[in-house]
């Protein structure tokens, strides 16, 4: 009887200590839990989160080239999934990696919370010349630099050559021509001309900027005030234009980046895809251009509002940032500057169309510029479309509450698709919504 | 004799009391020891987080200006926040349709399976229960694909009749799309609970009823259902709590239809967005507590109106 009781007590204690053991796990920032294998032992290790499809190779290349520091990489999810985890780690004050891959439009969101390190003092001058001015602007807030650019997303219009040939249309140069062509295809009983996806608000934001909108104005010298202009005429025009296309049945209203959309792209349901330079790589990975649709795609410059004054815009693109939780920021900065910056990694990135590199050694590489892209059936897409678009891109000021803005915009696009509001009304509502949020967050809204 | 016993009794009483007291104490200690592990886990993983969330919900955190104590401001904000209110209204509407539907189907199936005893009945029981064994996430993903217009079966089935397939992921039909997923998932589980309750009913009651001339319908309606009323109320409470906290299915289907299912689709999703996407743990906690309040009121009202029937809680 007594022994049994002792045993029971021991068992309970053991169970209890198990619980305690669980709680001492630190999760994401743990260096013993790398996806990659670190072969060089006894070197300082920098932890990193990222989701490039070839991150494994990039990390291995970095580790091979360095004898003073090694990178421990974890993939904690793409985009929003990673940001949510990072956000939680910021709030918790622990659990973040030393270096993190972020899209340029998120940098202000994390910077304003004091979660990122200004890496200007840790070797910026040495690599400054490797990137264009626009690339640095996108990762900077004021004079401070919060990331090392890796890839960009100059936009173009991907289209189905077979559909364009069948209905005898040439790539539209303006948005007016785009609508005419769409009408022509529809009248001839053809497929949808494009797609308005509620879950890609960033595209519409870029298209609004193309028309001349500047959604957010933000002066880092006065961090408490922000300009929010989401319902100016340009923003309204673009939402009205796309809402109109959807209403007339010229474009689909399918969410993008989902199997439903991809199967539509493969089956020729959409004649065009307004997207960025990384899209061919993404589409190839999703299974597009491999079967019946092999070699049917081509790319043309983004249609313009005013062809006399073309404006190029950007969607996506990413950078490596150093987090405030990094114990050795200088070492972490070294990793941020060095990752994906060696020739081998960059070449792998652009030959497999995983990234559109912003590193000038790749961007100015004739092999890159003249590349005949297999996805586009040998078209020299970089030379004809993406490199000129990247060179003409001026940079943009992103919101320090990007997540809220994009969520709110998704909601409004969804309303436009439903037909419950017009594009202009949606822009007004969005303005009201986001301005209210900005005020709640303590900003003075201008 | 009487005198003797009277004299002795108090002493004996005292002694037994003493012994009983010792036993009591030992039993007491044993009891605590057994309850201990549960108690520790209960305090550490339920009560403490709840208190912490309550504490958090009394503060407000701003990007500019930091954190400040605001007492109940977050709650005032929640109950005037169209996102929270529309989400709450959605789950209430959803509960009003989904719960009766699920219970009726589960009850009908349980009664049929109880009345029929064959190999087929046993097989059906397993098949009906099976969806519950599939994780909600996988179930939601599966239905997401089945609803797909591009490669789901709906297009083919409706095509046979020359009709256009409905898009259950569109904003007009998402209510029914989710209703279907939830019903599919939970009916089997409720059915099993009701079936088990039916098995517990004394069969002699049926015999007596038959002798009094009751038919199958009458036995089902007048004997079986009233006797399993406690089990019915139990699953009603379960499903009410579960449905008001609706999260998994819409959160998963959101990956396929972000336009239809906004980040504030249900109160729980809204709390999740506030806490984990927007880093506003304070407001997220307040929403959670506000939702908890709504759940409490709904369950309390339900139990109040069914108080005569219940034999638990």
**Structural class per helix/strand content of chain A?**
alpha/beta
CATH homologous superfamily placement of the largest domain in chain A: Periplasmic binding protein-like II
Shape of chain B: flat
In round numbers, the mean pLDDT of chain B is: 86
Helicity level of chain B: over 70%
Major β-sheet annotation of chain B? 2 strands, antiparallel
Number of strands of chain A: 14
C-alpha end-to-end distance of chain B: 50 Å
Secondary structure tally, helices of chain B: 13
What portion of residues of chain A is helical? 40-55%
Mean pLDDT of chain A: 88
| Count of separate structural domains of chain A | 2
Quickly give the CATH architecture of the largest domain in chain A: 3-Layer(aba) Sandwich
- Terminal Cα separation of chain A, in Å? 77 Å
Unreliable segments of 5+ consecutive residues of chain B: 1-9
CATH topology of the largest domain in chain A: D-Maltodextrin-Binding Protein, domain 2
Q: Name the poorly predicted regions of chain A.
A: 1-29
Tally of discrete structural domains of chain B? 2
Task: Summarize this structure as a short list of keywords or feature phrases.
heterodimer, A: 446 residues, alpha/beta, D-Maltodextrin-Binding Protein, domain 2, 2 domains, seven-stranded mixed beta sheet, three-stranded mixed beta sheet, B: 313 residues, mainly alpha, MetI-like fold, 13 helices, 2 strands, 75% helix, transmembrane (chain B), Sugar ABC transporter permease (chain B)
Write a compact overview of the structure shown.
The complex is a heterodimer of chains A (446) and B (313). With 446 residues, chain A is of the alpha/beta class.
Q: What would you note in describing this structure?
A:
The complex is a heterodimer of chains A (446) and B (313). Chain A is of the alpha/beta class. Chain A has two domains: 181 residues, Periplasmic binding protein-like II (D-Maltodextrin-Binding Protein, domain 2, 3-Layer(aba) Sandwich); 224 residues, 3-Layer(aba) Sandwich (D-Maltodextrin-Binding Protein, domain 2). Chain A is globular and about 70 Å long. Chain B is mainly α. Chain B folds into two domains: 55 residues; 233 residues, Orthogonal Bundle (MetI-like fold). In chain B, 75% of the residues lie in helices and 3% in strands. At the A-B interface, helix 1, helix 3, helix 11 and helix 18 of A face helix 1 and helix 12 of B. Chain B: It is found in: Cell membrane.
């Amino acid at each position: 009887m007594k022994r049994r009781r002792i045993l029971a007590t021991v068992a309970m204690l053991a169970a209890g200590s198990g619980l305690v053991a669980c709680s001492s796990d630190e999760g994401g920032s743990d260096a013993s839990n790398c996806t990659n294998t670190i072969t060089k032992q006894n070197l300082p290790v920098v932890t990193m989160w990222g989701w490039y499809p070839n991150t494994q190779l990039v990390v291995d290349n970095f580790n091979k080239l360095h004898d003073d520091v090694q990178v421990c990489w974890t993939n904690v999810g793409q985009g929003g999934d990673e940001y949510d985890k990072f956000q939680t780690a910021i709030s918790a004050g622990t659990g973040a990696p030393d270096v993190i891959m972020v899209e340029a439009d998120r940098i202000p969101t994390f910077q304003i919370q004091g979660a990122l390190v200004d890496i200007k003092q840790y070797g910026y001058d040495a690599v400054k010349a490797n990137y264009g001015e626009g690339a640095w602007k996108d990762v900077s807030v004021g004079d401070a630099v919060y990331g090392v650019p890796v890839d960009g997303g100059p936009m173009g219009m991907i289209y189905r050559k077979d559909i364009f040939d069948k209905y005898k249309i040439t790539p539209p140069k303006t948005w007016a021509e785009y609508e005419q062509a769409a009408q022509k295809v529809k009248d001839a009983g053809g497929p949808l001309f494009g797609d308005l996806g509620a879950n890609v608000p960033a595209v519409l934001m870029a298209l609004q900027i193309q028309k001349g909108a500047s959604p957010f104005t933000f002066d880092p010298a006065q961090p408490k005030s922000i300009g929010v202009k989401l319902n100016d005429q340009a923003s309204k025009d673009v939402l009205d234009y796309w809402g109109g296309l959807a209403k007339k049945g010229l474009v689909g209203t399918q969410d993008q980046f989902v199997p439903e959309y991809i199967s539509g792209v493969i089956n020729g349901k959409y004649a065009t895809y307004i997207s960025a330079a990384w899209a061919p790589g993404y589409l190839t990975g999703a299974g597009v251009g491999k079967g019946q649709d092999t070699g049917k795609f081509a790319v043309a410059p983004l249609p313009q509002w005013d062809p006399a004054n073309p404006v190029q815009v950007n969607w996506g693109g990413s950078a490596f940032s150093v987090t405030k939780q990094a114990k050795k920021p200088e070492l972490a900065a070294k990793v941020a500057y060095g990752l994906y910056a060696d020739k081998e990694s960059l070449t792998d990135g652009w030959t497999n169309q995983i990234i559109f590199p912003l590193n000038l050694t790749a961007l100015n590489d004739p092999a890159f510029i003249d590349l005949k892209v297999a996805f586009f059936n040998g078209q020299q897409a970089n030379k004809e479309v993406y490199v000129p678009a990247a060179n003409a891109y001026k940079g943009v000021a992103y919101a320090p509450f990007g997540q809220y803005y994009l969520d709110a915009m998704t909601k409004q696009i969804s309303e436009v698709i439903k037909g419950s509001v017009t594009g202009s009304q949606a822009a007004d509502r969005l303005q009201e919504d986001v301005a209210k949020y900005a005020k709640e967050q303590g900003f003075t809204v201008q | 004799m009487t005198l003797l016993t009277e004299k002795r009794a108090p002493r004996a009483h005292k002694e037994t009391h003493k012994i009983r007291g010792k036993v009591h104490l030992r039993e007491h200690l044993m009891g605590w020891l057994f309850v201990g592990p549960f108690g520790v886990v209960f305090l550490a993983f339920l009560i403490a987080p709840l208190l912490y969330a309550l504490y958090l919900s009394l503060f407000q955190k701003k990007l500019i200006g930091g954190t400040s104590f605001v007492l109940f401001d977050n709650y005032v904000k929640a109950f005037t926040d169209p996102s929270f209110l529309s989400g709450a209204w959605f789950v209430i509407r959803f509960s009003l349709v989904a719960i009766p539907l699920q219970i009726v189907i589960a009850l009908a199936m349980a009664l049929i399976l109880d009345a029929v005893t064959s190999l087929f009945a046993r097989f059906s029981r397993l098949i009906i229960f099976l969806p519950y064994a599939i994780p909600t996430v996988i179930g939601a993903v599966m239905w997401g694909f089945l609803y797909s217009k591009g490669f789901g079966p709906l297009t083919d089935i409706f095509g046979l009749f020359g009709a256009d397939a409905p898009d259950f992921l569109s904003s007009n039909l998402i209510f029914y799309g989710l209703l279907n997923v939830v019903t599919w998932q939970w009916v089997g589980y409720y059915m099993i609970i009701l079936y088990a309750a039916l098995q517990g009913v004394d069969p002699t009651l049926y015999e007596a009823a038959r002798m009094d001339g009751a038919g199958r319908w009458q036995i089902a309606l007048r004997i079986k259902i009233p006797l399993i009323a406690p089990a019915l109320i139990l699953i009603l409470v379960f499903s009410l709590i579960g449905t008001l906290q609706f999260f998994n299915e819409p959160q998963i289907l959101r990956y396929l239809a972000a336009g239809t299912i906004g980040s504030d689709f249900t109160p729980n999703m809204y709390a999740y967005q506030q806490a984990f996407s927007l880093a506003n743990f304070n407001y997220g906690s307040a929403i959670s507590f506000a939702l908890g309040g709504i759940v409490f009121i709904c369950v309390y009202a339900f139990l109040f109106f069914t108080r005569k029937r219940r034999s638990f809680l």
